[in-house]
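Researcher: Quick test of sequence recovery. Tokens follow.
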């Protein structure tokens, strides 16, 4: 079964992409097809960069609040895949890349994957009294005796 999946991804997908590029090229011409492919790569790269900075800032604010930025890290990984898909020539990979750039869809996919693995747990409810800080500062004087 893994060999079949490997063949579909690494042999079948490029063949379908090539077929689709040839069909689109026969309708609109070779140069417009190449220009469209270059345009989607440039636009996708710019969008991935902008969304990557937004995810980075959210991860930094989560770290500043002493929270684990797990979802943000997974979003960054999906943005990396989106960028790779958008740089590859072909319209199917471009469609997958642009779908991964939709933030609510990306977050939904991450949450669904985490729930399926059983690693997503609900956040604890805040208690009625404020929590004590773990980093207490104890002031005092000391003297070194040899």
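Model:
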């Amino acid at each position: 079964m893994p060999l079949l999946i490997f063949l579909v991804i690494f042999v079948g997908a490029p063949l379908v992409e090539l077929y689709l590029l040839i069909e689109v090229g026969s309708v609109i011409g070779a140069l417009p097809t190449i220009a469209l492919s270059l345009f989607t790569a440039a636009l996708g790269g710019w969008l991935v960069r902008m969304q990557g900075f937004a995810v980075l800032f959210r991860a930094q604010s989560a770290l500043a609040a002493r929270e684990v930025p797990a979802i943000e890290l997974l979003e960054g990984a999906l943005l990396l895949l989106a960028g790779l898909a958008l740089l590859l020539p072909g319209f199917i990979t471009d469609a997958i890349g642009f779908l991964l750039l939709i933030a609510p869809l990306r977050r939904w996919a991450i949450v669904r994957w985490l729930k399926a693995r059983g690693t997503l747990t609900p956040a604890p409810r805040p208690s009625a009294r404020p929590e004590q800080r773990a980093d207490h500062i104890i002031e005092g004087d000391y003297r070194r005796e040899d």
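The chain has one domain: 11-117.
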